[in-house]
Design brief:
Elements (H helix, E strand, L loop, with lengths): L2 H7 L14 H11 L12 E6 L2 H14 L13 E8 L7 H19 L3 E5 L1 H7 L2 H6 L6 E10 L21
Antiparallel strand pairs: 1-2, 2-4, 3-4
């Protein structure tokens, strides 16, 4: 698949087939794509990736997040069999750069997942409860001094591969 075709096909998946495992080589390819993202000042050591295939831990994150957000418990991962968390060092060179760096990593992973025929979604809300739960972060092996920022969920969509859409300028833009 060409880059622009993968971009045209990428869409958020909210109906993962939780019983269909993602092969290790595809997970590794998605992680490698994330590691090629542009990172402010090349400070790759300011980020950490955690690949989670453990449904019990994902359910624990769901409970923690629902409690932290004072909402009814739900599956923030939409049944995805894999969630890749991007954590950032609490010591950053500029305010907010951890969000920009994380977004670049996740976008690379989402495009790579689409290219591999995997459904995917960028996750923010479900990660916020995890970020507040130090014990769960430690259980997941997130290094001390790092905080989860966002995640990408990947897997196979129950509704099949996304169809390409026409690319257009849908965000306000001006050209000077």
């Amino acid at each position: 698949m060409q880059t622009m075709e993968a971009i045209a096909r990428r869409k958020s998946t909210r109906d993962f087939d939780s019983n269909k495992a993602v092969p290790d080589e595809l997970v590794d390819m998605v992680v490698k794509a994330g590691c090629q993202a542009p990172i402010g000042a090349g400070k790759y050591e300011s980020l950490h990736l955690t690949v989670c295939r453990n449904r019990e831990i994902l359910e624990e994150i769901n409970r923690s997040t629902a409690a932290a957000m004072n909402m009814e418990e739900r599956d923030f991962f939409y049944g995805a069999p894999v969630a890749i968390f991007v954590s950032a060092s609490e010591e950053q060179m500029a305010p907010g750069i951890e969000c920009a760096n994380t977004a670049c990593v996740i976008e690379n992973m989402l495009i790579a997942a689409t290219d591999a025929g995997l459904g995917n979604i960028y996750l923010w809300g479900g990660v916020q409860g995890l970020a507040k739960n130090k014990e769960l972060c430690a259980k997941m092996g997130i290094p001390e001094g790092f905080k989860p920022v966002s995640a990408a969920a990947i897997g196979y969509s129950k509704s099949g591969e996304a169809q390409p859409r026409e690319l257009s300028v849908s965000i306000s833009a001006n050209y000077i």
